[in-house]
Structure formats: C-alpha cells, structure tokens
Specification:
There is one protein chain. With 541 residues, the protein is α+β, with helices and mostly antiparallel strands. The chain is built from 17 helices and 17 strands. The strands form three sheets. The protein has an eight-stranded mixed barrel. A hairpin with a 7-residue loop joins strand 10 and strand 11.
C-alpha cells in the first residue's frame, strides 16, 4: 500500500515538469516553485517543521537545484521510499511521510507538499517525532552551548545526491540508540498474548507453588529458560512441545537462574524471588514491550539532538552515568537518583566547579519533611549527630534555644567529615533545583538494582575517577595542590574550565551489545503518558 500511494503521487506530478527541459538565463522569469516560495502569503498548505519555518527550509532545498522539480526522478523516489520503509526500525511510522496532496491541489503545491514531508521525515529521525519540551521538558542553563547539528534542509540537499547517506546522517550515531534500534528489529511481534500471571504469595527459591508451570512457560516463550539446560537463550524452537509441556513441581535452581536472568534484564534485584515487581514485568505483553522500546528510541533521539561533543549523561531511571567525548565512552559509574517523591529533574547544564570536603546545608524540603519530625521526637537528636544550627547570618545557635515546633530563620549544616552525606566532593553546575552530583558514604546502596533513593541529587559511586578525569589536564604541581587540599579536611572550591555538559535525563529501555533488550522500572511514571502521546501522534499501536 505504501508503494502504491507513492506511485500515485508521483503520477500526479508527471505532467508538470516545471521547465525541466528549458534553458534559463539570468534574466528568465521565476520558476513556478520559486514564485510560490517567494510569496508572502501561504499559497500552499504544508506540513510544519519544528526546527525551521517550512518555506525557509524548502527555499534552501530548492535553491540547491535551481528551483526545479525534485521528484520527476523515479530512482530518487524509489530511494526515498526505501528509506521511509527503514524508519519502521526506528519506531517511526513510514505512512506519516507518504500523504498525497488533495486531488484538486495545484501541481506545484503537490510538489512542495511532498518535499515538506521529505524534510519532516529527516527532522523526526534526527530530532524526535514529538517536541520534548511539551512532554518531558528539560530545564536548560544559559551556560549550555547549543549542540552542532546539520540542519534539516542541508540533510535534504545531501539526500538529493545520496538518499541513504542523508538518512544515515540524520539517524543518531549514539551507540545506545543504535543498540536499542537493533534490539527493536529483533523483537518477536508474533509472540502470543498470555493470560495474566496471577498475583499471590512470594515465590521463593525451593518453594512449591501452583503458578510454577505458568512461570516456566512464560520464561520459555520469552527465551530465558530451557528446562533441559541452564538459563540462557534457547537453542530450539519456542513452540517445542517438550518445552511447553514442562510442569515443574518445585522452584529448582535452573528455573531460579532463568528468573534471575529475567530480573536482571528488567532492572530488578536478581534474587529469584517472584514478587509484585517481577509479576508486573512478566505481565508486559509483546505489544507493551514494543511500545516501551518505541518511546525510548524517541527519548534517545531527543538526547542525541541535545548532547554536545563533551557530555556527562545520567539516567535517573537506570541510575547510571556515562561520560562521552563524541561517541567515545570515557567514564561510567553507577549512581543513586531521586525517589519518586523527590525526582531528579531533567536538565541541561555544565560542570563549572568541584567542592572538596563539602559541608552540607540541609535543603528546606528535607529540613521540613525529614529532619523536623526526627528532632521533635528525639530530645537527644543533636547530641547524637554532628550538626550545627545557624541563623540566616551564619551565626551558630544553641539547639536548645530554638522552638522546634515553629522554627524560623534557621539552617542546619553538617560540617565536612567521613559521614557527611555529600562525601568528599561535589560536582556543581548551574540549576534552580539545588541538585548536583556528589560522592556519598552510602556505598552499600550501589549494590541495589533499583537505586532511586536520593532526595533529587545524583550520588556517584566512582566520584574519585570523575574528579581525576576533570583534573587530568592540570600539571603535576596543580594536582598535588588539589590533593593536599583534599587531605586537609577543609572545604575548597576548584574551578573547572570548559567542563562537560551535564544531562540529567531518563530512559527505561536499552539494547545490549548482543541484541537483547534490558528494561528498567519507571520510577517517575513517565512511560504511560509518553506512550499515549507518541502513539496518538504516529498512529502506531
């Protein structure tokens, strides 16, 4: 059907070559296309672009070819059609870009309509189908430099010579995008929808449970379990009757291994305990998994369009951080991100300084919601903790002199030390949320699969390595001076020149190097609204 629509549209253009056989001089009249593009009023109804006025982008496109028709060349039309079909692997809907103009429209408007859809396809592939700021808005610092990206019109011009190269240039080169795209292509859309896996008591290793046959069959059908081998990809058809007829009586080690593999690929603690989160992941239908991958391809398009050459990217859903120079990964770390109630915000900024041996001034929300209830319930609160009470001028107060039922104009501050919640260093960047990346004494929490435990800041496991990276351009004398300041135990600020961009962002599905999918929980509940918006816009189900 897609090819038929394309051929019909090209047919409606075939009688209007717009002077392609004519010879022009510098004094020749404007071509029909040029006349329409230079009119001040909108002579033709055209799809809009987000990144540039569509008439402006079309004028630049047609200027490169002398304002003659672009779609009389059937080879070019066929190449465009093939690239549209390939957009299915990006989670986009090719039919959005093959919309024939109305039958009664002027041929020149039909031509421009087709070209506008061509540019729209390139824009959606390179910048995202939706406007991120309308769905998952990002706060951007004035210090954040605009990323260098090839304009949509320039991509269109490239495509006139080499359509495949233009679409490949538009497609994000970011390896996270490429791996997720590959995994999406390998998803089996024909897997059957199974009856919901029932709720019930926890299924623990060694237990017996009437749901074990259903558990076994689900893991077989999703490729995690072969009862005749250890957990891992199956080497025989999923519909093999010998597999599907398995009726496990106890929750044995082989089935536990399969559950652990499933839990790891769904961002859950791989403890082989089948509880509510594991049941929810088991009950994701094939269609729901496809929807999740599509919206995360969209998020990665947004991310790639925003990221600069030198960027530190922290994913609040997966609680990990990656630092890139171009497409080269230079540093990575597990992190702890904000809880659902105190979410890590989405932002785009730039590291500009590092605080060594920081003190911690307790933010107002934490003071009000966490600390005051503890202080009121525990008379010995301040004798058990290394906390200072300060007024707004920074003068230290006696805690006993404060009315803790209605405190006014006070601050709580914890001085530097081994138990300070900020650890030994803080990586700071401009933002209105009072969040930053920092070290932490809560190292044990990094062993958790789900690490949404902070009050909004990003706690970094490999903080020392990040500091080494930021200071690697300094000479030995400067680095020795920083180390002495660190060893002093006193607070020092170190300016960072040309620090990396910081992107605090969010995605819930990744592709692995071997083509499998890895999901994470959706701690902030952002998936469902984006799925609705994305599929309303694209028509995909």
């Amino acid at each position: 059907m897609l090819k038929k629509c394309t051929v019909l549209f090209v047919g409606c253009l075939s009688f209007a070559a717009y002077g392609t056989q004519a010879e022009y001089t510098v004094n020749v009249a404007l071509t029909p296309i040029q006349e329409v593009l230079q009119q001040e009023t909108d002579a033709c109804p055209l799809p809009e672009l987000r990144t540039a006025p569509v008439i402006q982008a079309l004028d630049r496109l047609y200027r490169a070819t002398g304002y003659i028709s672009l779609w009389q060349d059937q080879e070019r039309v066929d190449a465009f059609q093939q690239q549209l079909l390939d957009l299915s692997a990006d989670g986009l809907n090719p039919r959005e870009y093959i919309v024939p103009a109305a039958e009664d429209v002027e041929p020149v408007c039909a031509e421009l309509h087709y070209s506008a859809l061509y540019l729209l396809a390139l824009e959606h592939l390179s910048r995202g189908r939706l406007d991120q700021q309308k769905h998952e808005p990002v706060w951007q610092s004035d210090s954040a430099l605009p990323p260098v990206r090839v304009g949509v019109a320039q991509l269109g011009i490239l495509g006139l010579e080499d359509m495949a190269a233009a679409f490949e240039r538009a497609r994000p080169s970011f390896y996270l995008y490429r791996q997720l795209r590959t995994a999406y292509q390998q998803m089996d859309a024909d897997l059957p929808d199974l009856a919901p896996f029932p709720d019930g008591p926890l299924i623990k290793p060694g237990a017996t449970d009437p749901r074990l046959p259903q558990l076994s069959q689900r893991l077989i059908l999703t490729g995690y379990f072969d009862p005749d081998a250890s957990a891992g990809p199956l080497d025989r058809p999923l519909t093999d009757p010998d597999l599907l007829d398995v009726q496990p009586l106890t929750y044995d080690e082989h089935l536990q291994q399969a559950v652990r593999a499933f839990q790891r690929e769904h961002g859950l603690q791989p403890d082989a305990v089948v509880g509510p989160q594991t049941v929810a992941a088991l009950n994701l239908s094939p269609q729901e998994r496809q929807q999740l991958v599509r919206i995360n391809l969209e998020r990665l398009r947004w991310l790639d369009a925003r990221r600069q050459h030198h960027s530190l990217i922290s994913n609040a859903a997966g609680s990990n951080a990656l630092l890139f120079e171009g497409d080269e990964l230079r540093w990575k770390s597990r992190v702890q991100s904000g809880t659902a109630d105190r979410a890590t915000p989405l932002l785009d900024s730039r590291i500009n300084r590092v605080t060594l041996n920081p003190s911690w001034t307790i933010p107002p929300t934490i003071l009000r919601e966490d600390k005051l209830p503890q202080i009121r319930s525990n008379p010995a609160y301040f004798t058990e903790r290394n906390l200072m009470v300060l007024d707004n001028e920074g003068t230290q107060l006696d805690p006993a002199s404060v009315d803790w039922e209605s405190p006014r104009g006070i601050l709580l501050r914890e001085p530097p030390g081994p138990n300070n919640p900020l650890g030994r260093m803080v990586f700071r960047f401009d933002n209105p949320f009072a969040v930053f990346l920092h070290d932490t004494p809560s190292q044990a929490l990094f062993a958790r699969a789900v690490r949404n435990v902070s009050s909004g800041c990003v706690r970094v496991e490999q903080a020392d390595e990040l500091a080494d990276y930021l200071f690697h351009t300094l000479d030995n004398q400067q680095r020795d001076r920083i180390q002495k300041r660190m060893d002093s135990g006193k607070t020092h600020e170190i300016r960072v020149e040309n620090g990396p961009q910081v992107l605090l962002t969010y995605w819930t599905a990744e592709g692995t190097a071997d083509g499998r999918l890895r999901f994470t929980p959706d701690p902030y509940g952002l998936d469902a609204p984006l799925i609705r918006a994305y599929h309303q816009a694209t028509g995909l189900q």
